[in-house]
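Entry:
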Amino acid sequence: MALAGVVSRVTGFARTLVIAAVLGTAAVGDAYNGANNLPTMIYELLLGSVLASTVVPVLTRARRHGRKHSREFTQRVLVAAVMALLAVTVLTVLCAPLVVRVFVADAAQRQLATWLAYLLLPQIFFYGVGVVVSAVLNVRDSFATAAWAPVVNNVIVMLTGAVFVLLPGPVTLTPASMTTAQVLTIGVGTTAGIVGQTGWLVAALRRNGFAWSWRVRPLPYTWRPVRSGLPVLGWLLLYAGISQIGVAVTMRVAFDHGGVSIYTYAELLFQVPYGILAASVLTVLMPRISRAAALGDHTAVLTDLSRGARYLCAALIPVAMAMSLLGPEFAELVFTGRVDADAARLIGTAVACSTFGLAPFALVMLQMRVFYADNDTRTPTMINIGMVLTKVTVLAVSATMLPNELVIVMLSVASSLAYVAGATIGHILLRRRHGLLGFSAVAVTVHRVIWATALAGAAGLAAIALIQHTIRTPTLDQLATLGAGAAVGTAVFLLATHLIGIPEIRTARTLLTR
């Protein structure tokens, strides 16, 4: 899974560079990125949290009743999900102009975003099917194959970018000058990426030995899995609605300040270490936590919570330091020439200023899984209220008091502040419910990792200062800065972990050398 995560994030970053190169970060890039965020927003608002948060615990409990019952119940869940997703997708596509009007004020940009929304909103259906199929694979203890699915999406979108470049069209892209062929190519190609990703997952499910049979009668049998989720449905929908308030405010502020593409690309960079280092840990832990919760084994739940928190902090704290030091140079190196220099600089600045939220983000995702495993959807909704209030407040103050460039940077910073608030609230609520959480071991790990990270950061900063003082050629300066900072920082961090003694790092290093 870690290998798949690395390949997925590398190809995802390459896809981002391709899209940035062909569309830029001005009005056309903002229209595309804004429209491409709509399927995710609406999917999360209407079904995403319901599917992602309830399917794994529900299927895990069904497996306790035997293989035959589990297979039949899973078939019904799949049929119910497909029917609901199809209805939601058709309705949303019909409402595309109304959805776009909420976010985009400029008339020309709104027209382009609307046409793109018609082409991109069908992704809702395929996102949902992919989530349900992934949940079935995870419950069946199959993780690695599904982790490769995003690579399919990334490759298809990169090929789409290549086709887009070969099309005849205007030298300078604007919302009014884009040709119909260009709009169709980028829209259909992006959606085809999600279709390919979902097709890979369905094929993986079949290879796993599960035959997706449509012989199950849609009604009334599909009502049983739906009925089992009704007690938690209201809070999940409220959670999704609250989340999308935060997303909607973020997107509106981003559009008003011309920062949609910059925010999107900074967010993608922010997600790279999470996808490589944290997502695999959380994916493996979710079925374990769900099984332990279903058996009433709270000791096992807390053990996995503590173990997950230790490994997440040990992995993400040093990465956050590295991204804060090297993020600006990296962004300027890879984005300059594909977008203008000011936009590349802002992307790097946004990443560097927001990496403090990386570990809290992973922790709050872990906490949510513990609550959902207990069939508690109310508490995550309360946590989410605190997160969204934090984010909206920061953005409201920033939009009224700060200059345009700083507002764009604060889009990313506000998200990280929300993660810090969410992790804090989540820990307090878990402590009230379960008492001692075994986080004394987590505190020890965090304390040691911070010391090792501080030493590595100081050494990396010294190496960066030395390189910048001795090399004046811009591109060579950036390459040498990244290479020296990463090499020196990594070496000092590993030496410090050996001297200080951090079991989680030692275990990971042992596994990698086997």
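The radius of gyration is 23 Å.
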